[in-house]
Amino acid sequence: MIEIREITKAYDGLRAVDEVSMTIKSGEIVAVVGTSGSGKTTLLRMINRLVEPTSGAILIDGRDNRDLPGHELRRAIGYAIQGYGLFPHRTVAENIATVPKLLGWDRKRIDARVDELLALFHLEPAQFRARMPHELSGGQQQRIGVARALAAEPAVLLMDEPFGALDPIIRGKAQDDLIDIQRRFATTIVLVTHGIEEAIRLGDRIAVMDKGKLLQFATPAEIIAHPATDFVAELVGSDERAFRMLSLTPVSDLMEPGEAPGAPIDASASLKDALSEALWSGRRALPVLRDGAIVGRVTRDSLISRAGRPQ
Amino acid sequence: MTGAGPAETMSAQADDTRVKRRSGLDRLGAILAAIAAAGLAFQPFSLFRANRIVAAKPVGILSALPPLEAWLLVAVVVAACAVLLLRTPPALRLVVSALTLAVLAVAVGRSGMFLTPSSNTYARVAPGGAFWIVAFAFSIALADASVRLKMSPLARLALLAFTGGALWMLLWSGAWDSLSILREYTNRADVFWREARVHLLLAIGSLAGAAVVGIPLGILCFRVQPIRATLLNSLNILQTIPSMALFGLLIAPLAWVAAHVPGASAVGIAGIGIAPAFVALFAYSLLPMVSNTVAGLESVPPQVRDAARGMGMTARQRFFEVDMPLAFPVILTGIRIVLVQNLGLAVLAGLIGGGGFGTFVFQGISQTATDLVLLGALPTVALAFAAAIVLDALVEIANPTPNRSAAA
What we know:
The complex is a heterodimer.
Chain A lengths: L1 E10 L2 E11 L4 E5 L6 H8 L7 E6 L2 E2 L5 H6 L1 E5 L10 H5 L1 H5 L4 H14 L4 H4 L9 H13 L5 E5 L7 H18 L2 E6 L2 H7 L2 E6 L2 E6 L1 H6 L4 H7 L4 H7 L17 E2 L4 H11 L3 E6 L2 E7 H7 L5
Parallel strand pairs in A: 3-8, 3-9, 6-7, 7-8, 11-12
Antiparallel strand pairs in A: 1-2, 1-4, 4-5, 9-10, 12-13
Chain B lengths: L3 H18 L5 H16 L3 E4 L7 E3 L1 H4 L2 H19 L4 H26 L8 E4 L1 H20 L4 H21 L6 H8 L1 H35 L1 H16 L2 H18 L13 H25 L3 H9 L4 H31 L12 H9 L3 H29 L10
Helix pairs in contact in B: 2-4, 2-6, 4-5, 5-6, 7-16, 8-16, 9-10, 9-12, 9-14, 10-12, 11-12, 12-14, 13-14, 14-16, 15-16
């Protein structure tokens, strides 16, 4: 659990982060979203003390983050950034081993952990261990950057625009990977992004920041349905919000018994995908597929009624 | 990475079509072949002097060697020119250029023996314009071929070692003993090696001093912004003082130090001699060392620094494990610049009694003995050339990212 208590960072009297308080629960993904200059990166960097606050405090699992020297605190917190910052003079394995080596793990344990992480990120260990960063594609570099951040099994992972430099298709895959890995290790993730799309897709809760202030901290559904301020409403975008709402729920939630013609849709697909498919193929209902068997159907009318503002 | 494959194939295809479209002539090769042929046809192959300071008498190639050897040499050079002229594979051009240089080197030695009357110790035979021009043309062809082959750093070092070995063999075998430069050498063998040691001490010692002082200064400049401009500008001004003037300017202060600081004159500090030469070379070395250290540290990507800090590396660990290794290739480039520059500049030490190969150069100038000048100049050029090749290879080996160009 990360408790942020009235944290403020001022540069020459100008408040980059202005009395922000929020509590991040263990094992959740919090997406901090805002325009550039909103203070979101400064907020993130105060959690691992890359930036020292002007006033206020941050408690991680009940302990003030100033109890330990900065470098020791940071070894216990994962850190992944835009541009990845891989060490260009070190191999992939050496890059991933950075924090375990700082913590003094033995050789065997480090090697085993490096191979485990490479496999986890779909990179064949024998093939990638000895590569240099400049021999990797952007997507591969990004995965190594996250693998390096997770190497010492941190309970908390901080990410600053980690997918910013990827093209849309690779970004989608990387986001799915992150969700998988977060479920596996139950890591608490604080992720900074400027894209509301990414925040809705990844965040269990979303923190919206503007001009150093925390405007709203709530679930994606709440943010879409009841934006706290005009700025939040504008960020969510009024022309997209019906579809954004649908994108939050899987088809299985709206499934009913019955049959329907045509190609089935997977139970784990979002309602947005289902409505899109129903509209495109001109069907009133779609069969729902789970584990290779048709288990029910989802109707167009129920999808449409779900797209409206929750009462 | 992605897309590199198709792009390479396309450029390879473009190369292919260019080869087919153009005629069979190699542009640089044609120029070099013309230079070599003109040199051989219109310049003397050897210069004959009755003694070491009288005016030289030019000797054409056909009189400089026994007829059979002369025609053989002409045939070899003409054939080699043909190889350069046509579009031939780089490996062939490399081998042909190297062989031609070897034949030329042996021939000039033979010419010395052929032209020197037996038991005449005053007569001098020196290589003439034709030798130098043909040697120049094929040296360029050799360098060009090695670039076209895209030789690895280790292969370049091997080629350098091989060339050095071949040169040593020629000197050791006595094939050049009748040439005037070696006559000058034989008369001064002891002095030559002593001056060689002084020359290296001046060039490498001042470089070591500049590295020990300049690298920490560069780090300081990088860390403390206000110092940077002041220090770099002062060093820039120092760099613009002409070397002769700097030697002169150093005489008074160093003479004062020698007279007033106890023990200073005992360790060799004086207004003239090796001390001012060393100080001047050290001063000229500082700017490249400091500015390359700053440039190297500046070339470390900011995300890499941020990631290093964010993962919990201490300031010390970041400096030794991230900043220095990444700045090292650029600092090494600075060392290369300084070493090559110092090997050349150290010649001027000869003017103020500092020793080194310059001693022969300035003695030769005052005696109008060209061969003596060459005895000082040729080893200097060879050393600078070898140093450049060795350090260029080291810079390339030290660079972890081939795409990142090392800023000078």
